[in-house]
Amino acid sequence: MNKANVSNVSPLETNVQPTQQVINDICEWEIMHGVAIKNSDGTARHCPFSLAPMAMKRHVFENLQAVTPLIAKLISRISEDYDYLQSSLVEMAKAEPFFGRLMELHAQIHGTQDAPLKAARQPLLLMRTDFMDDRVQGAKVIEFNGIAAGMGPFGQRAQQLHRYVKNQWPKEYNVWAEDKDGIAEDNVCLTQLAQGIATAARSIHAEFTDSEQPTFLMVVQDKEDNVYDQHLLEVALQEMGIRTVRRTFGQLSCQLSTGDNNRLMLQDIGGIDVVYLRAGYQYMDYFSPELAEKKCCHTLSQTRVFIEKHNVAVNATISQQLATSKTMQMLITMMPAEAFSRWEISLEEANQIKRVLAAMLPINTDTIHWFKTEAMKEEWVLKNQGEGGGHCVFGEQITERLDQLQEHEFDAWALMQRLYPHERNKPTLAVRDGEVTLVHDLVSEIGLFTAFYNDKPVTDFEGYAGYLVRSKPAKENEGGIHSGKGILDSITLVE
């Protein structure tokens, strides 16, 4: 056990560090309940976690619960506004090759303003909006996640894990919880996401008579390590009477076909009702060395076009992926609230959304000059269009990166106000690979899930579908569970 820095911990906390027996018990609980990451050799390790939950002001969380479905409604409508997507993202698409390809695919599916095409697919928006509760500005959006927005099942399991610790090991829980009297915020993310998917699956299935069960297809990466989070969702769907199958883009490129009435058919399975993409947010997902293509990634990216030309519910559509890009986030942030009326968002709703958006700026010669001569560099972060960890630049390194950018690359990047969330008011124990580390400066990123089908909420909570908390030491820039120093966490509410 790592006992570094324990001199700053109270005698009570020092004396109630959990034994290895306690840690082993909790880690085994995680593995038993599917909260695990797959190793390259086929074995599994438990997902890193905090021993006890964070505390959050009730009014802050309830505001996020109220505003996040409004954001999802806005994104849902922008994603179906084909002319706006093509016109507003054209410069970014020139600067960012991957999004340039997505825009080409988007045009293949939807046509142009002069020659529009009707897309057959039905949009199912399963979105995660990530927030940080800034010390000064309050809770603000970090980013929208419209494709491969995973770990909802793990979010629900994290809350269950902390309930288990509280009941089974109350002494340790009471010492290490940020507020031992906080009320646990129930998290039904797994069941609500499954309900949203099942609703869409049954809706599509009702239009056909070719199979007994609605069928759900998850598009996954080859050699995926986050399979257990995915399998938890599949099991929940199976319990709702939905058949589930998994395929990579490589497999789908030669297994899909068209059935009667524009039905999407999968070889050896039959009709497909829902396609859920846990891959497709990077070029590598479409790369196949066996194809030896003149135009890289053409064949597998065309698989997405083929899917969207059928009567099937899809998350994420290419439209949704474009609508949740960093550039679209910047445009939404910069436009006046009155402009939201284009998507039938009321002024009151628009103002609610605007209040949780952190400032963003485009990259151009004027912005670069301002940043170098006037900006407080620690107050900003430079972002490109990438999903996942490793796509942000901080502090003095921003100037270095800006100096490296060519003018034709500017539109692929944006400056965003850097958020400095509240640190926990007491030290926390983080558990990774069965070992305990004392963390004095843990901060949290809170992702709220929403589920909309054909622009309508499909959960029991007006579109809200649960949450995911990932915490990390404040000094660490990358907070991903897989790619950074992040750990699973949950929320207790305090007045």
Automatic annotation (TrEMBL):
Source organism, top-level taxon: Bacteria
Entry's Gene Ontology cellular component terms: cytosol
Pathway: Sulfur metabolism; glutathione biosynthesis; glutathione from L-cysteine and L-glutamate: step 2/2
MF annotations from Gene Ontology: ATP binding; glutathione binding; glutathione synthase activity; metal ion binding
Entry keyword annotation includes Lipoprotein: no
Pfam family for this entry, one: GSH_synth_ATP
Keywords: ATP-binding, Glutathione biosynthesis, Ligase, Magnesium, Metal-binding, Nucleotide-binding
InterPro entries, alphabetized: Glutathione_synthase (IPR005615), Glutathione_synthase_a-hlx (IPR014042), Glutathione_synthase_C_euk (IPR014709), Glutathione_synthase_N_euk (IPR014049), GSH-S_sub-bd_sf (IPR037013), GSH_synth_subst-bd (IPR004887), PreATP-grasp_dom_sf (IPR016185)
Essential cofactor(s): Mg(2+)
EC number(s) recorded for this UniProt protein: 6.3.2.3
Keyword ATP-binding appears in the UniProt entry: yes
Glutathione synthase substrate-binding domain residues: 215-323
Family: Belongs to the eukaryotic GSH synthase family.
Protein name: glutathione synthase
